[in-house]
Amino acid sequence: MDQTTSTPTAAPETTTATPAAPAATFPSTSDARTVNNITGHDYRVLSDDEKAAMQKLKDMGLELHEFLTGLEQITKTSRELSIAKTKVEEAVMWAVKHITG
What we know:
Layout: H1 48-74, H2 79-100
């Protein structure tokens, strides 16, 4: 008589993820953005003129983005309008990179 024995397999271990501590946030013009940077990138402290330029740039980008969003209330939403909003975001990103680089 042929008998096969089976060995019980252990149930997979379950782990509970510990929620990450919320990241500290700083205004983009704050010098505090240069401390405790875990990604290994170095950030430099911006001059007051650079901070003012970056703030103005972001404010102008937001104003244009909000204007384009308002067009959706007047006209239908379109792919072209979505692309325009994305390009505003991209333009602000690249200009900020120029200032902070």
